């Protein structure tokens, strides 16, 4: 487990990289600052979407109910345990899919929060998702370590289901030793984080799917996704 000092240094690195890139754009482009501003918004995209809902309601209720759209990801183990496959919707950014030097494969699909009462927990006394994810990527050596690091100072923005595969735990043709630590799953809402080892489910099903809906019952109910399903169907 990384020390508090190491985690603070990682936060500083993320922020320094963020602003250094922006200053570099400004210096090169002189007065053309719109591109630098656009770069800033890209880094904050997931967090900003939830902050916009908190501070500026969507134009229509329908636009909120439409949700975030759909994407998907999958972890698949071959029946004879000879190999496994990890697929994400897109290999595009540090937040969507990443493989770390600690041999962790991490991906996410976004989940929606329909519970307006949880908005009160989105406060400045927190750290945005794009920084927390990078700190966890840099400092974690196991799935549970990643989850515990990421859970600190939860901003309640960019609420995702995160799946963390520990490549170090996989042994070809040795399904009897894969009892713990291969797959760890985390789900976040404002003021709520649930995470646990899901290796047993992966081994039983031979796959782990992720598609924009909470797996954990508490998150499903806290987000009021259950009410949306009853009212509008299983899109939610």
**What is the typical, i.e. mean, pLDDT?**
79
Shape: globular
CATH architecture classification: 4-Layer Sandwich
User: Structural class of the secondary elements?
Assistant: alpha+beta
Specify the biggest β-sheet: 5 strands, antiparallel
* Strand and helix order: HHHHEEEEHHEEEHEHH
Helix count, DSSP H or I runs of 4 or more residues: 9
Function: Putative phospholipase.
Family: Belongs to the phospholipase B-like family.
Pfam families: Phospholip_B
Enzyme class: hydrolase
Question: How would you sum up this structure, described in words?
Answer:
The protein is α+β, with helices and mostly antiparallel strands. The chain has a single domain, classed as 4-Layer Sandwich (Penicillin V Acylase, Chain A). It has helices at 4-29, 34-43, 45-55, 61-65, 129-139, 143-151, 199-205, 217-222, 225-232; strands at 73-77, 84-88, 97-99, 104-110, 160-166, 183-189, 192-197, 207-210. A hairpin with a 6-residue loop joins strand 1 and strand 2 (84-88). It starts with a helix and ends with a helix. The model is unreliable at 89-95 (pLDDT under 50). Keywords: Glycoprotein, Hydrolase, Lipid degradation, Lipid metabolism, Signal.
